[in-house]
């Protein structure tokens, strides 16, 4: 029989199981308080850390997240360079650099990213990535905080290459996932930049110039002179953490550089280079030959070139046949001597001693730099030389302006002028030893008579002669908008240093030095009515949207001669071509004026010559000036001295240029006998590397900017006593002349001179 439990005993038992002993409750309370205090302390410490180091943590997190999402430079596009009709001569193409992020690639110990990524590079580019493997291995050994997230592995990949590689990565990663592998291609990315590109390679290389590899700095030509206008400003994407610690980005857009519309006419530039190269490779050839074409009414340079050319896309690539190692060493030794002298308080060493102080590699390096400087040099603005008889129109012009002579003033040439200082006697001869007889100013120019020029200079006197040298710009920079213009201030005489013998030789272009840009600019002024315009190669500056922000107007710097003097010279120089020393410059149907020049280089005993011709057309209204200089033809002695070498080159250039500009013949002409049928008839023609679409873009790329050729607004009153040429009539006269005779006479070596030959006076 079941007995019922004792109620009191049951209640006592239940109370004992529910209620903990007091000592246990005490321990529990103490423990709870301890952990509560510890929690509060940790919370406070964490709060202090976050408060005091919030910015540093944010930067660290941001850097980590930017590694994944990217914060990149947005490169600005360097402005284009165009000819006057919109033909692109220099542009910038977007290219891509393959960037390696070693931190991401090495983030797993099992190398799941590293091996897959390196394999992808090797397989896609079909190359051994040994260099990249070595770099990654080196980075892998570094602590995480020291690893680099930026290594430029491949440069200047095309858009097609970039797209193909990204597609390849995507396909490979999908395949890894499908196969259940942990491998992934990570840590490879692309950055954009621009590569400078010159579609016509060496065309107009002396004018355009080139840039550094990154396109940030122009190194020659308008690329250098207008660098600040061309470069633009880079943009950037910035990452930051918002209040919710989410990565946000801000984009600062790049501002592209301004574009330049040059004064260059692509067709005329190409023509100039064509005929210079024909002279150099298919004719006699010379040390160097150069040419410049200008618009006499504005100072605009339509073309400028020399036989020294280089590919603007590879400016440091030297022709090994022209610059063999032996020549580089020779050039390097000369440069090393200069370096040693500069670094050792003006102490000199001989060529034989150079090897004691410089290694062969150093000498080759100096030699390459010297060779580059030779190739990049622009002879038209940087080389100086004695101009010869092309100066004679200026001698006559100054005398006419001062009324020292009149057009009909005569002097008698018996073949020489004898001068003496009481100790020495000099016979300064005319090129025609038996003399020209009695000549007036026009006849003197036609026959290039030295004796007439000397007598004219004596009548002027040293003070007036020197004054007009500077009026015409000899001894002064033209300030053309190109770098490297030679300073000729010390290469002309002053009133105090110009003696009678040097006055005599200066009158026909010897014993002082000029540059081609000085001569061409001065010549433009004496045939255009007397306006000396600043020579320039940039016509307009456009912003990135194509809006004209600067329109370069003709800048009148000074007036050199009166309209009467200019009219006389135009007629006299026309007669020089029609019946004088400039006959090879004649072009059927056109009235061409011009002057030959032959200068004997120093030392005179070497019998080396520089020959030239400066021509213009049409005589009635000059629209083109072409100046050609041929330095040291590849012949011996007196055979070099024929000015016809330069005259024939000028004639070809002028003939084609007149047609390019649609300047119509003034007289009867047989097109089959004179005009060049092979020429393009329109301006801004397609180049070899331009498609029709590109040409349309170039047309649009004129961007309201490539305007019609600037017209000269100034018109001078023509005197009724001026020649018939001023009224549109050209009277052809013929004067007997010895066509085989040389243009210059003899100038003795012992004459005082401040000038040297081209080799020694060229400005480095």
TrEMBL record:
Region entry Disordered, spans: 685-764
Annotated Penicillin-binding protein transpeptidase domain residues: 290-648
Its keywords, alphabetically, are: Membrane, Transmembrane, Transmembrane helix
Q: Where is the composition biased (Acidic residues)?
A: 739-749
Q: Which GO terms describe its biological process?
A: cell wall organization
Which Pfam families did the record assign? PBP_dimer, Transpeptidase
Q: Which GO terms describe its cellular component?
A: plasma membrane
Extract the InterPro entries matched here.
Beta-lactam/transpept, Beta-lactam/transpept-like, PBP_dimer, PBP_dimer_sf, PCN-bd_Tpept
Recorded superkingdom: Bacteria
Bias (Basic and acidic residues): 699-738
UniProt-annotated location(s): Membrane
- Predominant location category: membrane
Report the GO molecular function annotations: penicillin binding
Q: What sections of the protein cross the membrane?
A: 28-50
**Low complexity bias locations:** 753-764
What region holds the Penicillin-binding protein dimerisation domain? 74-246
Give the family this protein belongs to, as stated in its UniProt record.
Belongs to the transpeptidase family.
Protein name (Swiss-Prot/TrEMBL): Penicillin-binding protein 2
The organism's lineage is:
Bacteria, Bacillati, Bacillota, Clostridia, Lachnospirales
């Amino acid at each position: 029989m079941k007995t019922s439990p004792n109620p009191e005993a049951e209640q006592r038992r239940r109370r004992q199981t529910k209620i903990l002993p007091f000592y246990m409750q005490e321990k529990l309370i103490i423990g709870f308080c301890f952990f509560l205090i510890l929690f509060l302390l940790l919370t406070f410490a964490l709060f202090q850390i976050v408060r005091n180091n919030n910015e540093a943590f944010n930067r660290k997190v941001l850097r980590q997240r930017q590694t994944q999402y990217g914060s990149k430079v947005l490169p600005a596009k360097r402005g284009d360079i165009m000819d006057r009709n919109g033909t692109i001569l220099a542009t910038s193409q977007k290219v891509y650099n393959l960037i390696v992020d070693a931190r991401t690639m090495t983030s797993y110990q099992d190398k799941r990213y590293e091996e897959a990524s390196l394999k992808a590079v090797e397989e896609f580019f079909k190359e051994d990535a040994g260099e990249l493997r070595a770099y990654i291995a080196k980075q892998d050994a570094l602590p995480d905080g020291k690893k680099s997230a930026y290594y430029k592995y491949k440069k200047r990949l095309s858009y097609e290459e970039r797209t193909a590689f990204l597609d390849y990565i995507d396909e490979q990663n999908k395949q890894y996932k499908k196969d259940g592998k942990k491998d992934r291609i990570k840590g490879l990315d692309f950055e954009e930049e621009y590569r400078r590109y010159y579609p016509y390679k060496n065309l107009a290389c002396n004018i355009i110039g080139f840039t550094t590899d990154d396109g940030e700095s122009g190194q020659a030509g308008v690329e250098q002179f207008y660098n600040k206008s061309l470069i633009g400003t880079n943009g950037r994407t910035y990452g930051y953490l918002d209040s919710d610690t989410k990565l946000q980005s801000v984009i600062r857009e790049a501002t592209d550089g301004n574009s330049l519309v040059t004064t260059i006419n692509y067709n005329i530039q190409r023509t100039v280079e064509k005929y210079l190269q024909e002279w150099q490779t298919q004719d006699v050839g010379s040390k160097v030959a150069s040419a410049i074409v200008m618009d006499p009414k504005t100072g605009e340079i339509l073309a400028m070139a020399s036989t020294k050319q280089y590919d603007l896309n590879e400016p440091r690539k030297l022709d090994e046949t022209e610059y063999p190692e032996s020549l580089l060493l020779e050039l390097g030794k000369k440069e090393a001597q200069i370096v040693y002298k500069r670094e050792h308080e003006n102490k000199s060493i001989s060529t034989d001693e150079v090897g004691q102080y410089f290694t062969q590699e150093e000498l080759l390096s100096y030699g390459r730099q010297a060779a580059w400087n030779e190739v990049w040099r622009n002879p038209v603005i940087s080389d100086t030389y004695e101009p010869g008889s092309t100066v004679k129109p200026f001698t006559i012009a100054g005398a006419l302006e001062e009324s020292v002579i009149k057009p009909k003033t005569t002097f008698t040439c018996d073949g020489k002028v004898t001068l003496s200082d009481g100790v020495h006697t000099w016979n300064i001869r005319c090129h025609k030893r038996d003399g020209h007889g009695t000549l007036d100013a026009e006849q003197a120019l036609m026959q290039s008579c030295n004796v007439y020029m000397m007598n004219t200079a004596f009548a002027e006197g040293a003070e007036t002669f020197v004054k007009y040298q500077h009026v015409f710009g000899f001894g002064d920079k033209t300030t053309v908008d190109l770098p490297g213009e030679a300073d000729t201030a010390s290469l002309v005489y002053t009133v105090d240093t110009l003696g009678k013998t040097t006055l005599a030789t200066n009158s026909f272009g010897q014993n002082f030095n000029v540059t081609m840009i000085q001569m061409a600019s001065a010549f433009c002024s004496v045939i255009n009515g007397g306006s000396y315009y600043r020579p320039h190669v940039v016509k307009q500056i456009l912003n990135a949207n194509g809006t004209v922000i600067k329109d370069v107007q003709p800048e009148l710097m000074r007036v050199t001669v009166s309209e009467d003097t200019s009219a006389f010279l135009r007629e006299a120089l026309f007669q020089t071509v029609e019946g004088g020393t400039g006959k090879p410059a004649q072009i059927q149907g056109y009235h061409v004026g011009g002057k030959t020049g032959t200068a004997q280089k120093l030392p005179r005993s070497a019998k080396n010559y520089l020959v030239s011709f400066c021509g213009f057309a049409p005589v009635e209204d000059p629209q083109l000036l072409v100046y050609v200089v041929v330095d040291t033809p590849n012949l011996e002695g007196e055979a070099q001295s024929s000015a016809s070498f330069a005259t024939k080159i000028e004639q070809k250039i002028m003939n084609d240029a007149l047609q390019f500009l649609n300047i119509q013949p003034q007289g009867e002409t047989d097109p089959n006998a004179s005009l060049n049928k092979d020429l393009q008839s329109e301006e801004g023609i397609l180049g070899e590397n331009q498609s029709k679409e590109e040409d349309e873009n170039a047309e649009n790329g004129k961007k309201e900017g490539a305007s019609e050729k600037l017209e000269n607004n100034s018109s001078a009153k023509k005197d009724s006593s001026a020649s018939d040429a001023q009224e549109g009539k050209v009277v052809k006269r013929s004067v007997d002349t010895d066509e085989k005779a040389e243009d210059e006479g003899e100038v003795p070596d012992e004459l005082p001179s401040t000038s040297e030959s081209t080799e020694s006076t060229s400005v480095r």
